[in-house]
């Protein structure tokens, strides 16, 4: 197999490329470098600079590298930006996957793995979110991921492609400091930023119906996300009829307060006080994956805990903010 990894120069994509390469899979990366960076790629992995929206580029890359499977990770992922710029999100995420699937179908590429998100569930009112929990996204970002999943399964059925959509829960951590996330829009880097600036980390609401009043999430190490892709890619390679939708989570709920406690310990800011602000609009009280289906289907479970996520993320942060 030769796997095309779109978005392979981005934060999650580069971890997937690294894990696929370590597992002996041949890969080629297509990335427009809008948020990715070529120096994230391991040596020997070819980089094609371009966008999945450009059909001619996609056709050429599929042909020249004799691609037999696609891992589609390229996309836009900021919830607030998607609310402000829905047309942009639908173009990048929905039109992007449409073009890629059309090219794959015409080229006869038989395997397609898609990066989806727990954002497809919206505000799930269940203790553990299973893949059968109804999808009800509450922002254009989540809508664009759900539309992508629909296309993936419909095209897979119509054109005889093995497919998988992987719904990531809250990704954190880094395999190495160099591969750390440069973005600052999630809880862990936002807390780092405040602590580094000598400011109090913000807690967006402590009056939720959860044990300590703060929101509960299922945090997952990006290396575990990457190993789940390797397992899914192997399954698709072995099973041309596969049509999978899988949560990638740990099934363990961690509250904002608990996460900040781990961050205090790891960063040495032991006595840092927090500032409780109002709730952030659109935040569900609790989103935790049921991780049974991926275990059953791929024999995969997460290996890393919250402390390793925070410690590895902090090493990356320190490297960028010496
Ligand atoms: C986690 C919790 C905040 C910052 C989003 C998207 C999701 C996926 C991942 C992309 C929440 C709280 C945060 C802070 C806080 N996106 N928080 N203080 O919102 O669960 O998920 O990112 O693929 O689709 O919705 O992640 O890291 O922003 O927030 O209290 O300074 O931390 O309210 O409860 P979220 P997050």
Please, could you describe this protein's structure?
Belongs to the NAD(P)-dependent epimerase/dehydratase family. Pathway: Carbohydrate metabolism; galactose metabolism. Its cofactor is NAD(+). This protein is of the alpha/beta class. Helices cover 41% and strands 17% of the residues. The protein has ten helices and 14 strands. It has helices spanning 11-22, 55-64, 79-84, 86-107, 140-159, 187-196, 222-238, 256-267, 292-298, 306-320; strands at 2-6, 26-31, 47-49, 69-72, 111-117, 162-168, 170-172, 202-204, 216-217, 219-221, 243-248, 254-255, 275-277, 286-287. The strands form four sheets. It has a seven-stranded parallel β-sheet, with helices on both faces. Strands 12-9-14 form a three-stranded mixed β-sheet. Strand 5 (111-117), helix 5 and strand 6 (162-168) form a beta-alpha-beta unit. Helix 4 packs parallel to helix 5 and helix 6 (187-196) crosses helix 8. The radius of gyration is 19 Å and the shape is globular. The protein starts with a strand and ends with a helix. The model has no long low-confidence stretch (mean pLDDT 97). The site of UDP-4-deoxy-4-formamido-beta-L-arabinopyranose has 16 residues, from helix 6 and strand 8.
């Amino acid at each position: 197999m030769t796997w095309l990894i779109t978005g392979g120069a981005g934060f999650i994509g580069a971890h997937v490329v690294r894990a696929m390469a370590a597992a002996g899979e041949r890969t080629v990366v297509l990335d427009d470098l809008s948020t990715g960076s070529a120096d994230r790629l391991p040596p020997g992995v070819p980089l094609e600079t371009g966008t999945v929206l450009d059909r001619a580029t996609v056709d050429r890359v599929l042909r020249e590298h004799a691609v037999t499977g696609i891992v589609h990770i390229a996309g836009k992922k900021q919830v607030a930006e998607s609310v402000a710029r829905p047309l942009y999100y639908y173009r990048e995420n929905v039109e992007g996957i449409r073009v890629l699937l059309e090219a794959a179908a015409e080229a006869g590429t038989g395997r397609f793995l898609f990066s989806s998100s727990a954002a497809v569930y919206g505000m799930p009112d269940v203790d553990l979110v299973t893949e059968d929990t109804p999808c009800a996204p509450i922002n254009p970002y989540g809508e664009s991921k759900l539309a992508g999943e629909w296309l993936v399964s419909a095209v897979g059925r119509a054109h005889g492609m093995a497919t998988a959509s992987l719904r990531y829960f809250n990704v954190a951590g880094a395999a190495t400091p160099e591969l750390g996330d440069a973005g600052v829009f999630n809880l862990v880097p936002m807390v780092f930023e405040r602590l580094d600036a000598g400011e109090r980390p913000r807690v967006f609401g402590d009056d939720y119906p959860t044990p300590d009043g703060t929101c509960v999430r299922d945090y997952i190490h990006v290396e575990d996300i990457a190993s789940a892709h390797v397992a899914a890619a192997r399954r698709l390679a072995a099973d041309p009829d596969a049509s999978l939708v899988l949560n990638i989570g740990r099934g363990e709920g961690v509250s904002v307060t608990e996460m900040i406690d781990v961050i205090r310990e790891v960063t040495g800011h032991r006595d840092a006080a927090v500032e409780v602000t109002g709730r952030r609009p659109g935040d569900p009280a609790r989103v935790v994956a049921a991780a049974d289906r991926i275990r059953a289907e791929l024999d995969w479970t997460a290996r890393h805990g919250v402390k390793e996520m925070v410690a590895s993320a902090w090493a990356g942060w320190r490297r960028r903010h010496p």
